[in-house]
Amino acid sequence: MPELPEVEALKDFLTEHLVGHEIVRVLPVAVSVLKTYDPPLSAVESREVTAVHRYGKFLGLETDGGPHLVTHLARAGWLHWRDPLPSGPPRPGKGPLALRVALETGAGFDLTEAGTQKRLAVYVVADPADVPGVARLGPDPLADDFDEERLAGLLSGERRQLKGALRDQSLIAGVGNAYSDEILHAARMSPFKPTASLTAAETARLYEALRTTLTEAVERSRGIAAGRLKAEKKSGLRVHGRTGEACPVCGDTIREVSFSDSSLQYCPTCQTGGKPLADRRLSRLLK
After folding, report:
1. Apex CA 200: angle with CA 197 and CA 204, to 5°?
2. What is the pTM for the complete model shown?
3. Cβ contacts of residue 244 below 8 Å, gap of 6+?
4. Is-contact 144 102, C-beta < 8 A?
5. Inter-axis angle of helices 4-18 and 200-221, to 10 degrees?
6. How far is the C-alpha of 208 from the C-alpha of 97, rounded, in Å?
7. Are strands 22-28 and 97-103 parallel, antiparallel or unpaired?
8. Could you read off the pLDDT tens digit of each residue along the chain, which spans 287 residues?
9. Cβ contacts of residue 22 below 8 Å, gap of 6+?
10. Could you give the CA distance from residue 143 to residue 268 in angstroms, rounded to a whole number?
11. Is 150:140 a contact under the CB 8 Å cutoff?
C-alpha cells in the first residue's frame, strides 16, 4: 500500500506534470472506483489543475473554480503517468485499469488496481473534507507543528499496542503497515508494546524514529518517476517484507507475525529483548 512517503512523492511528481494544464477527459473504467456522484465526474473536465495536495494517504487535485478530484490508492492501487496516453478509449473489462485522466497535451495518468479486492477510491467533492476518510484524519506527522509534545498527547489516552496506534489514521495520518514496522525498528520497540507503558524517554525515542524514518523515505523518493516509486520503497525498507533476512543493525534474523490479512516484521534483538513474538495465526493452526 502506498503510504505517506510515496503519496508525497506522487504529489510532487503530479505538481510538476499537472499544474497549469487542463483536464479534458476523465474516463472511469471500473464501476467500483467512483464513490461520489454529485458533483459528477465530468465537473473537473475543461478545468485547469491549480494544485496537488496530500492528505495522509489521500491524493487530491484542485481545479480552477471547480471541485477537487481526490483518490485513495488503497492496498493494490497505483498511478501510472502516460505521455502520450494510449489512443482510443479504454475498454472496461477484467484488467487493472480503473480510471484515466487525460490532459490537453495528450499526456495524462491511469489509476490501476491489481487483485480482486477493489478498494481504490475516487471522489469528486467541493471540499476535500467532504471525503469521510479525509475528515477523520489525525495530524500529519511531518507537519511543522507536530512535535514530541503533540505525539505524547496523542498517545496518552490510548490503551492499545504501538503497532495499531501508529497505523490508526484518525490518530496519525499517513503511516501504514510498512512504515510502522520501520519506525518501531528504528525506535527499538516491540510492536506489541502498550502505548500506556511509554516513558518520557521512550516517547522521545519514538518521536525521533517517526520523523527520521518518514523524512528519509520522502527524501529517497523525491524526484523519482511515479513508475519507480514502488521499487524505491522496497529497497529502502530495513525489516518490513524481509522475513528470514539478517537485520542490518545487529545481524539477527528478522521474524514475522502473521494476521488474517496482513503481517508485521521485526528484529528480536533490536526490539523484543531477543524473544520471538508469538505468531498468532500459526499458534491457532497448531492447536
Report:
1. 110
2. 0.93
3. 253, 254
4. no
5. 40
6. 39
7. antiparallel
8. 899 999 999 999 999 999 999 999 999 999 899 999 999 999 999 999 999 999 999 999 999 999 999 999 999 999 999 999 998 888 877 789 999 999 999 999 999 999 888 899 999 999 999 999 999 999 999 999 999 999 999 999 889 999 999 999 999 999 999 999 999 999 999 999 999 999 999 999 999 999 999 999 999 888 777 777 877 888 899 999 999 999 999 999 999 999 878 899 999 999 999 999 987 654 433 33
9. 46, 47, 48, 49, 103, 104
10. 32
11. no
User: Can you tell me which residue has the cell 508525497?
Assistant: 8
Closest CA to 72 of 43, 38, 15, 111: 111
**Grid coordinates in use for 202?**
521512550
Which amino acid, residue 181? D
Which one-letter DSSP state was computed for residue 194? Answer: B
Q: Going by C-beta distance under 8 Å and a sequence separation of 6 or more, which residues neighbour residue 88?
A: none
How would you class 138 by CB atoms within 10 Å of its CB: exposed for 0-12, middle for 13-18, buried for 19 or more?
A: middle
Q: What is the largest CA-CA distance in the chain?
A: 61
Which residue's entry shows cell 479486492?
A: 117
